[in-house]
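User: Just a sanity check before I run the rest of the batch. Below are the structure tokens for the first item. I only need the designed sequence back.
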């Protein structure tokens, strides 16, 4: 799929940027946006030139959550515009828990950077938490929103949020649904970095391109799988899985290149093989 109605899709220097493109509605989530993001992620996954994915929003917001028209339709008994779970899983080799309607980001075998450029609420916050690394503009504002809509801790956020910020902080944020400014989000561990808005896009792309050029794409894919799968297993299982992966990595071109470029004191030229 190359024509999208609700996202912008661009690839440059090994980085695919998927931009939620409903700025007049603060990129509120709906069925067509859901389908476009899935298609964009699939295109980035299948493109060997893409090594890193950036997910961001057009205009002044990241994602304001579910479109209120969708919520109104659900209240009126019309679910035709509500996003639905895909008929087929993202990746049949991924853990079943990462095959759900909104939990499939961890099954994408390339790192996803959430570039939180502005307001990020409700379902938008859930999606941001499923990204691997989050960089926020200093104008970003976060809210779970659910309690103020008569809803619950949706789509796995009750599992994600305590792992990021602890049980008590997660409970307080979910119960109150209050606004969280970017600086507090950083102090809590909701985001990795906060960047001045004037430099935001440049800083995000610079970091993404560093990952695309300076590290092994094979290592990135393996580490992403290891990190997410380890959340669903014990320490022993994580060690056993890593031992299998380590043995396999010794036979790869990227391992040979990783040693060679270090010894030869030159930039790396990883192939992903």
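Assistant: Here's the designed sequence for the first item:
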């Amino acid at each position: 799929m190359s024509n999208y109605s609700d996202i912008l899709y661009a690839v440059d220097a090994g980085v695919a940027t998927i931009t939620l493109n409903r700025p007049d509605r603060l990129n509120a989530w709906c069925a067509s946006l859901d389908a476009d993001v899935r298609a964009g992620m699939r295109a980035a996954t299948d493109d060997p030139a893409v090594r890193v994915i950036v997910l961001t929003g057009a205009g002044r917001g990241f994602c304001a959550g579910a479109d209120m028209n969708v919520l109104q339709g659900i209240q009126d008994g019309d679910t035709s515009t509500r996003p639905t779970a895909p008929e087929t899983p993202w990746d049949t080799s991924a853990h079943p828990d990462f095959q759900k309607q909104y939990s499939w980001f961890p099954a994408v075998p390339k790192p996803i950077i959430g570039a939180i450029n502005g307001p990020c609420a409700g379902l938008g916050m859930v999606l941001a938490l499923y990204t691997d690394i989050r960089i926020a503009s200093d104008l970003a504002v976060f809210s779970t929103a659910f309690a103020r809509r008569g809803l619950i801790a949706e789509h796995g956020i009750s599992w994600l949020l305590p792992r990021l910020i602890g049980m008590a902080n997660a409970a307080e944020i979910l119960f109150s649904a209050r606004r969280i400014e970017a600086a507090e989000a950083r102090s809590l561990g909701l985001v990795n970095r906060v960047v001045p808005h004037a430099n935001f896009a440049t800083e995000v792309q610079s970091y993404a391109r560093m990952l695309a050029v300076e590290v092994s794409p094979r290592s990135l894919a393996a580490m992403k799988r290891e990190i997410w799968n380890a959340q669903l297993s014990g320490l022993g299982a994580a060690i056993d899985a890593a031992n299998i992966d380590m043995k396999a990595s010794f036979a790869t071109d990227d391992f040979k290149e990783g040693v060679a470029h270090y010894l030869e004191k030159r930039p790396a030229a990883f192939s992903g093989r």
